[in-house]
Amino acid sequence: xxxxxxxxxxxxxxxxxxxxxxxxxxxxxxxxxxxxxxxxxxxxxxxxxxxxxxxxxxxxxxxxxxxxxxxxxxxxxxxxxxxxxxxxxxxxxxxxxxxxxxxxxxxxxxxxxxxxxxxxxxxxxxxxxxxxx
Length: 133
Prior knowledge:
Elements: H1 2-27, H2 32-58, H3 64-88, H4 99-130
């Protein structure tokens, strides 16, 4: 039962995290601020449940499949870190009167989301391929 719950949480949170990341990367990060906490919450759940699944399914072995999954896991953690850093270092209380700063802020947010999206593409590819290597 623990495996089923962990897998469901891992997939659902991963879909939300990846989906919001890909959407924000595409639209330029304009609405990133209201999505930051849910996105990071989903990232945390996906990473923790991924660790639990690793413990339940791959403990004690480190073959090719584990190398591929480990590569994906590292990229997922890096993606969450990039998103957190991109959010923390962007000013969020800018008014519309400061257009250059608003544009710069949106550009930084979009760049962070795009980098995270690329990292998550690698993560998803690793999860999909791990079973077949």
